[in-house]
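Quick note —
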Amino acid sequence: MSGQLGINPDTDAFAGADVTAQGEQAFKNIVSVLKETGATLRDVVKVDVFLKNMQDFAKLNDVYKKVFDGALGGGPYPARCTIEASALPKGALVEIAVTCVK
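Predicted structure written out below.
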């Protein structure tokens, strides 16, 4: 799946001004798209995370863990790659893409 930003589809605005709020919304968007295709987070085998600032890694890691603990009951987590990007679409703080196998 292509990258998802932390934009609330109901308001077309970022879910918040911090990486935690944007990361949580990006994962909600991912879950919605997966559901449309008949997939779930259990089908995710790789997660690519693009952060505006690598200093936000620990905060996004907490979001990642919460999301996948809830979906998988504690693991094993999918493979992950996290990259700092100097600029993301629409000025986002985080963009998340996933690869699934069903």
